[in-house]
Design goal:
The protein is of the alpha/beta class. 48% of the residues lie in helices and 14% in strands. It is built from nine helices and eleven strands. The strands form three sheets. It has a six-stranded parallel β-sheet with strand order 6-5-4-9-10-11, sandwiched between helices. The chain has a three-stranded antiparallel β-sheet with strand order 1-2-3, with helices on one face. Strands 7-8 form a two-stranded antiparallel ribbon. A hairpin with a 2-residue loop joins strand 1 and strand 2. Helix 1 crosses helix 4. The relative contact order is 0.15.
Length: 271
């Protein structure tokens, strides 16, 4: 991930320099990737880009990631393949992002939007003018750094509402989420996922909890960590497969759950 912005931890000589809380962490540290992600979120929260609950949500996801060995399980890899294939044939795809995904995977999501020729829309639950302005500014800054200013960034002026959904996340853009036929939504919430499915849209989510309402409701849930997923999606978009209308999304989700359960069983046996 390209993180040259001063908002992120700085790397020199193979070490991660974090002046705020962690000191220097070498790349050989077994928790290196996890620590980098945590610090990005801490920094983003200090800048006012995230609500406090964002850190709780990330920590919950990390617990599930431990159970799959912090690796992409075969079921998730199959889901990534299918999502990439479907997004490439979508008529009006859109990528919906919240604060956590901007902090963790902004560059890759901009590159995916560029590959698909689709907009990226900011849609958050704890919506304030300051937080929205900060997130939009961050995305535009990264787009400039990546020479991707042509990617359309939506969310500043929502002009539509998702039917059957209350709260700030119902506000969306007609040229984005409301008009989309397929939506990639890292870190979605259950209520909005259900409402989007009810509208007849295909909703592709990234959720490390295979038992969440979102994971069970989505057209396809990729049960994997968001940064690994978006990196893999970028690769798959360059070498896509043919979409499979019979793809068993529930079997994919359940297979990753089985990996988690096997990990717990092995731990009990070893004990």
């Amino acid at each position: 991930m390209n993180q040259e912005s001063g908002h992120f931890p700085r790397k020199t000589d193979g070490a991660l320099h974090i002046p705020t809380t962690m000191g220097e962490v070498p790349e050989s540290h077994p928790r290196y990737a996890s620590l980098m992600s945590r610090q990005r979120l801490v920094d983003a929260m200090k800048e006012g880009l995230l609500a406090d609950s964002a850190l709780i949500a990330h920590g919950r996801g990390e617990a599930f990631d431990y159970l799959i060995g912090e690796r992409t399980a075969p079921g998730a890899a199959a889901a990534i393949d299918e999502v990439a294939a479907r997004l490439l044939v979508a008529e009006r795809p859109v990528i919906s992002v919240n604060g956590n995904t901007v902090a963790l995977a902004c560059d890759e999501l901009l590159q995916i939007a560029d590959s698909l020729g689709c907009p990226l829309e900011v849609n958050i639950y704890y919506r304030t003018p300051e937080r929205m302005a900060g997130l939009l500014e961050r995305i535009k800054a990264r787009a400039t750094a990546l020479d991707l200013n042509h990617v359309e960034i939506l969310g500043a002026n929502p002009d539509g509402k998702i039917p059957g959904l209350e709260g700030p996340r119902s506000n969306c853009c007609k040229d984005g989420i409301l008009g989309a036929d397929m939506i990639l939504v890292p870190l979605e919430d259950g209520d909005r996922c259900e409402a989007l499915i009810a509208m007849g849209k295909q909703v592709f989510v990234i959720d490390l909890n295979p038992l969440s309402r979102t994971a069970k409701t989505a057209t396809i849930c990729i049960v994997d960590e968001v940064q690994r997923t978006v990196s893999a999606l970028l690769s798959r978009l360059k070498n896509p497969k043919i979409p499979d209308p019979k793809f068993d999304a529930d079997a994919s989700r359940r297979s990753v759950l089985e990996v988690m359960l096997d990990a717990l069983e092995r731990d009990q046996t070893d004990a």
